[in-house]
Amino acid sequence: MDYQAIIDKYYPEGDALRSLLLKHSRQVADRCLAIVEKHPELQIDKDFIEAAAMLHDIGIRWCHAPSILCNGTEPYIRHGLIGAELLRREGCDEAFARVCERHTGTGLTRQQIERQQLPLPLKDFIPETIAEQLVCYADKFYSKSHPDRVLTVAETAQSLEKFGHEGVEKFMEWSKMFE
Predict the structure, then answer these.
(1) H-type helices in 90-144, by residue range?
(2) What is the pTM of this model?
(3) Residue 78 vs residues 22, 31, 63, 102, 107: alpha-carbon distances, Å
(4) Residues 32-63: pLDDT tens digits?
(5) Do the Cβ atoms of 39 and 130 come closer than 8 Å?
């Protein structure tokens, strides 16, 4: 999978958003790759996980989040869904699209979407495969708002608490599996 060609197509050289996307995605990819090296028993394909991590936020360009240089019109919560749709249009394997649409928080259930009236289709967006879980997990340590900061497991868990304890529990289970 030539993830760089897809990034190049939608994020031109010299674009500040491209730089932020590449920095964040590389951080997530490097963490994923370190975990894959540490845990060969998980049998995660290195090439797939690197490409999936590099593409997980491909949809941010179309979202409205000016503080992180995103000047689109869509609500930011939709960036995973937008990225998944883009990857499907590009003919990417469905597994890459699923990583995109399932990495928000520790995943979103239909009930959460309905209860919070989120602008997403009423269905579950829960990371199911080990690769989906790994990219989702690794992503939580890095913020595009503070790109030079790396959170600890405890800090990440604390940051997730505002979305409910269920997500924190899931994150801590992933921490046991991946760290």
Answers:
(1) 94-101, 110-115, 130-139
(2) 0.96
(3) 19, 24, 7, 11, 13
(4) 999 999 999 999 999 999 999 999 999 999 99
(5) no
Structure tokens at 76: 């930011």
Structure tokens given for 20: 């932020």
- Number of C-beta neighbours around residue 14 at 10 A: 7
Distance CA 108, CA 15 (A): 31
Q: Which residue has the tokens 């505002």?
A: 162
Q: Which amino acid is at 147?
A: P
What is the average pLDDT across 149-153? Answer: 96
Check whether 4 has a pLDDT greater than 90: yes
Nearest-CA neighbor of 135 among 100, 168, 162?
100
Q: Is the pLDDT of residue 162 over 90?
A: no
- Rounded Cα distance, 78 and 63, in Å: 7
Q: Kindly report the number of other CB atoms within 10 A of residue 82's CB atom.
A: 20
